[in-house]
Amino acid sequence: MVYRETGPSSVLQAVELDDPTPGAGEVVVRVVRSGINPTDWKFRAGAMGGMPGGFDQVAPGQDGAGRVEAVGEGVSDLAVGDPVWLFMAQSGRPVGTAAELSVQPVERVTRLPEGAGFDLGANLGVPAITAHRALTVGDVPRLAPGALDGRVVLVAGGAGAVGNAAVQLARWAGATVITTVSSPEKAALAEAAGAHHVVDYRREDVVARVRAIAPDGVHQVVEVAPAQNLALDLEVVAQHATIGFYANNGGDEMTLPVRGAFAKNVALVGVLLYSVRPDLLRAAADDVTAAVAAGALRVGEDAGLPLHHYPLDELAAAHDAVEGGAVGKVLVDVTDA
């Protein structure tokens, strides 16, 4: 499924392309599942500029999972038939995961641990790596069991895909996890994800609740709406806390309470995967894969992330569902497992 101009989801169309051949350091993956993220429809709609990469034709999809179909020269860690997950598959390339076959640099292809399904694999790119980066922009550069022992993490929007991954990763690393949500239904999802404490910001005093839970302050904030929440975050964080923000929900500009920030020695760090250093992306992918192998990252309603499946020829409807704010994860079934 491709688009040749930016615009509404109706610009997406089915085409037949020649099967790709891997070059040196590349892998061809038969995509089983594609994960849809907000940036996918935003790029398609032109909200991020013109045609991505200046390409004449783009098959979208940054995230996906499938099996290795072919490997190029110099690839030794993967073999034909291996189950894998992909991240940033369409970044700088014309064909992402909305295609039966996608050729990718081996650095963006990671073997799925035994027992991990393709539904989970297609959710490990943008959501899980973004969550990892937001959790590690401070003085804890890697996640593993015990890495966040004794720390309190506040996840804004714990029912979203990134929030869900942040809750699960932070808990796996040993943190006490607080999350904010906007409804009782989303509270149930955040609890299913493993949050220790859930605060409904529309019905509760967030500052009072968080201070009661963490009287010494929050050490790390994973923030989806900094324009709305920055002042609140500064009220509840501890000295030398870090606020990692990855979206502009609720506004494109924010006001910084200067004294409140420097008085607590707070670091405010933006997170956008497309400009993150390759070594940091690789570290995140390795840590995320370790969490999957440990059973710490899950998807599905019982993990707080309901799944919504669409066939490949209904990619436009899948994009519309994400743009419309679907609760959970939208997946596209590309080929048979």
TrEMBL record:
<dbReference type="InterPro" id="IPR011032">
    <property type="entry name" value="GroES-like_sf"/>
</dbReference>
<dbReference type="Pfam" id="PF00107">
    <property type="entry name" value="ADH_zinc_N"/>
</dbReference>
<keyword id="KW-0521">NADP</keyword>
<protein>
    <submittedName>
        <fullName>NADPH:quinone reductase</fullName>
    </submittedName>
</protein>
<dbReference type="InterPro" id="IPR051603">
    <property type="entry name" value="Zinc-ADH_QOR/CCCR"/>
</dbReference>
<dbReference type="InterPro" id="IPR013149">
    <property type="entry name" value="ADH-like_C"/>
</dbReference>
<feature type="domain" description="Enoyl reductase (ER)">
    <location>
        <begin position="7"/>
        <end position="332"/>
    </location>
</feature>
<dbReference type="Pfam" id="PF08240">
    <property type="entry name" value="ADH_N"/>
</dbReference>
<dbReference type="InterPro" id="IPR020843">
    <property type="entry name" value="ER"/>
</dbReference>
<dbReference type="InterPro" id="IPR013154">
    <property type="entry name" value="ADH-like_N"/>
</dbReference>
<dbReference type="InterPro" id="IPR036291">
    <property type="entry name" value="NAD(P)-bd_dom_sf"/>
</dbReference>
